[in-house]
Design brief:
alpha/beta; TIM Barrel; DNA polymerase, domain 1; 2 domains; 10 helices; 42% helix; 15% strand
């Protein structure tokens, strides 16, 4: 069993990187990819001490733009660190996130939700995002749960939502490829295409752009969804990935690992078309 989609407290998870590694070992994972949002710092910390029985994979989840949609892209660097060029490119996404957070605080204040940016950043460590805003709103009594924070204020259709600028999807695919990595479309069921024709057209264009894989197994996807994505992967020649999208206590009910996803999946991902 392996897990190719996990988060630490360097983005929006609750577990420290060492704690996540210990948990992965406890549940018997053979490989773990840390895919924090827009940062490699969680992987960097975890890599300082990894047991021989566990393969730790540098990974990332990048929030990208495709037309009017936000689409998440997973990147895996199966031969090691992506290098300084890729890391410097990530700094641009960090600035975009920081600017969004300023605007989000201002928007919440106009709605009578009195919080300060430094209060949120105290919860966010190296990467402050909406889950940290949600935790603060719960702590201050504006909402009872993180789910309520998103439904009332922070979700994409909520009162205080602020659009975040980010890299284009094709650009992110190309950046991962240039850094020696392989890319996978994260939780595709969330994209919500209005029809099958649009989804097929999209996948065809992403194949041409260099996308390597699709995340076929994800907690948001039913067995029928997974079967469909496996078929689409076969149709377009994509590798497949799968994971728990583990966030620790920040995402209740999610367990690390998936019995369906084994080492053979990682082997197939390694065999994906190598970067040019």
């Amino acid at each position: 069993m392996i897990d190719l989609h996990t988060h630490t407290d360097h983005s929006d998870g609750s577990s420290t990187p060492p704690d996540l590694v210990r948990l992965a070992t406890t549940v018997g994972l053979r490989a773990l990819a840390i895919t924090d949002h827009d940062t490699l710092s969680g992987y960097d910390e975890a890599a300082r001490s990894v047991p021989e029985a566990l393969e730790l994979i540098p990974g990332i989840e990048i929030t990208t733009k495709w037309e009017r949609d936000n689409i998440h892209l997973l990147g895996y660097f199966l031969t090691g660190d992506p290098g300084t060029g890729f890391r410097q490119w990530l700094e641009v996404t960090h600035r975009d996130r920081a600017e969004r957070n300023v605007r989000l605080v201002e928007r919440l204040n106009t709605l009578g939700v009195w919080i300060r940016l430094d209060e949120v950043e105290a919860l966010g460590r190296t990467m402050t995002g909406r889950p940290h805003f949600a935790r603060l709103l719960v702590a201050k009594g504006y909402v009872k749960t993180m789910e309520e924070a998103f439904s009332r204020y922070l979700g994409e259709h909520a009162e205080a939502f602020v659009e975040r600028r980010g890299p284009g999807l094709v650009e992110a695919i190309e950046r991962i490829r240039a850094a020696g990595g392989v890319s996978s479309l994260a939780h595709p069921v969330r994209i919500g295409f209005p029809g099958q024709g649009q989804e097929l057209e999209f996948l065809g264009s992403m194949k041409e752009a260099g996308l390597n894989a699709i995340e076929a197994f994800h907690p948001d996807q039913t067995a029928a969804d997974s079967a469909r994505y496996l078929e689409l992967a076969r149709r377009y020649g994509f590798a497949v990935t799968g994971g728990s999208d583990f966030h620790g206590s920040n995402k209740v009910g999610t367990r690390l690992g998936n019995p369906t996803v084994g080492m053979e999946w990682l082997d197939r991902l390694r065999a994906a078309e190598p970067p040019a």
